[in-house]
């Protein structure tokens, strides 16, 4: 292996909403960002037809798979802040739009 | 802005508010511990409710399955009795019931997914709460040091992020359970009123018609016998 300690990749903590945290190499962030941008375009488009919905679901699935397969699940007892938070696979287009606008997150006082 | 950055910022804003609301770090630690215990309780309560909702759907499913079998039998008897009209009616009803089963299966799957999520969330949070307790003791012992202050902030931020996430899962699960409960209630009402499918309580139209046909056939048979014995 040519890797030495100096160019060791930075590690990123990613949370999948509703499904826990993963640790991924910094270079995976590029892949995450690419899919993320595609999702943002769909959310901003405001369109709701079946093809948009299907595309949204496909990208969301890819996003989740990237993190689950290229990352390592963090142990339950670890208490770590996430660098990145992505939505879980079961989120709907409507819910994602709300979250994107900053709505739909529960009141702090309820749980924190 | 990317979606993931937006989500991380939303959570950070909430978490920072919690941290900023306590001047005394020790107090912040205690406050967080209380909130954690409350959240675990709420999660456990919600899991019980989700499981109950799922059971209710499964019971409806078995009621409808019984009905499907019964309608199948009725269709057979109708064909035997030469009453295709009744057989057709029974099969139509059977198919309506089959559609209902499909819908119920989807609902059961959705609610099962919510149950898994909440159960995993409960495991994660319980493990973190234990870890937080032991950290809390260590930090409290030396909390005046600058390092301890940093550790307090880290611990509270980390666990609050999990709690905020779980809060969202809970809200979604509660919404879904509520929606499902009202649907289940509607199905129960339809079953009870007999408008949808339950022809098993009282003799239904098909049964009555089939009996009539049977009686008619018996009468014809007897009549034929009488006729042959008389002549």
Could you characterize the architecture of this molecule?
The complex is a heterodimer of chains A (112) and B (231). Chain A is α+β, with helices and mostly antiparallel strands. Chain A has one domain. Helix content of chain A is 46%, strand content 15%. Chain A has four helices and four strands, in the order E-E-H-H-E-E-H-H. In chain A, helix 1 runs antiparallel to helix 2. The longest helix of chain A is centred in the middle third of the chain and has 21 residues. The radius of gyration of chain A is 16 Å and the shape is globular. With 231 residues, chain B is mainly alpha-helical. Helix content of chain B is 89%, strand content 0%. Chain B has five helices and no strands. In chain B, helix 2 runs parallel beside helix 4. The longest helix of chain B has 58 residues. Chain B starts with a helix and ends with a helix. The model of chain B has no long low-confidence stretch (mean pLDDT 86). Classes of the chains: A alpha+beta (112), B mainly alpha (231). At the A-B interface, helix 1, strand 4, helix 3 and helix 4 of A face helix 1, helix 2, helix 3 and helix 4 of B.
- Supply the number of helical segments of chain A: 4
**Helix percentage range of chain A:** 40-55%
DSSP summary, beta strand count of chain A? 4
Overall strand count of chain B: 0
Strand order, main sheet of chain A: write it out: 3-2-1-4
Rounded to the nearest angstrom, the radius of gyration of chain B is: 31 Å
Overall 3D geometry of chain A? globular
Unreliable runs of chain A, pLDDT <50, ≥5 residues? 1-6
Q: Could you say how many structural domains of chain A there are in total?
A: 1
| Largest interface by Cβ-Cβ < 8 Å | A-B, 37 and 48 residues
Report mean pLDDT of chain A, rounded to a whole number: 87
Structural class of the helices, strands and pairings of chain A? alpha+beta
> Which spans of chain B of ≥5 residues are poorly predicted at pLDDT below 50?
none
Shape of chain B: rod-shaped
Proportion of beta-strand residues of chain B: under 5%
Characterize the largest beta sheet of chain B: strand count, sense, and whether it forms a barrel. none
End-to-end distance of chain B:
100 Å
Which percent range describes the beta-strand content of chain A? Answer: 15-25%
């Amino acid at each position: 292996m040519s890797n030495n300690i100096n160019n060791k990749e930075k590690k990123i903590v990613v949370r999948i909403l509703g499904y826990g945290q993963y640790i991924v190499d910094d270079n995976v962030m590029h892949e995450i960002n690419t899919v993320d941008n595609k999702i943002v375009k769909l959310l901003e488009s405001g369109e709701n037809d079946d093809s948009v919905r299907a595309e949204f679901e496909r990208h969301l699935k890819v996003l989740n798979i990237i993190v689950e397969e290229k990352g390592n699940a963090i142990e339950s007892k670890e208490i770590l802040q996430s660098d990145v938070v992505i939505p879980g696979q079961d989120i709907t287009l409507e819910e994602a739009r709300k979250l994107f606008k900053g709505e739909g997150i529960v009141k702090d006082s309820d749980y924190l | 802005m990317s979606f993931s950055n937006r989500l991380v910022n939303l959570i950070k804003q909430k978490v920072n508010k919690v941290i900023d609301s306590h001047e005394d770090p020790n107090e912040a630690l205690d406050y967080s511990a209380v909130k954690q215990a409350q959240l675990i309780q709420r999660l456990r309560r919600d899991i019980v409710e989700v499981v109950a909702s799922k059971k209710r759907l499964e019971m409806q499913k078995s009621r409808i399955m019984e009905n499907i079998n019964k309608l199948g039998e009725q269709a057979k008897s109708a064909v035997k009795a030469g009453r295709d009209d009744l057989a057709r009616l029974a099969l139509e009803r059977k198919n309506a019931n089959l559609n209902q089963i499909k819908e119920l299966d989807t609902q059961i799957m959705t609610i099962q997914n919510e149950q898994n999520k909440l159960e995993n969330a409960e495991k994660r949070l319980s493990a973190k709460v234990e870890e937080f307790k032991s950290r809390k003791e260590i930090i409290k012992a030396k909390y005046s040091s600058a390092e301890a202050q940093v550790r307090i902030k880290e611990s509270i931020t980390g666990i609050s992020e999990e709690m905020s996430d779980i809060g969202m899962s809970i809200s979604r699960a509660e919404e879904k359970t509520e929606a499902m409960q009202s649907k289940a209630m509607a199905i129960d009402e339809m079953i009870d009123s007999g408008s949808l499918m339950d022809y098993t309580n009282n003799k239904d139209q098909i049964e009555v018609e089939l009996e009539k046909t049977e009686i008619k056939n018996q009468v014809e048979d007897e009549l034929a016998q009488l006729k042959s014995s008389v002549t």
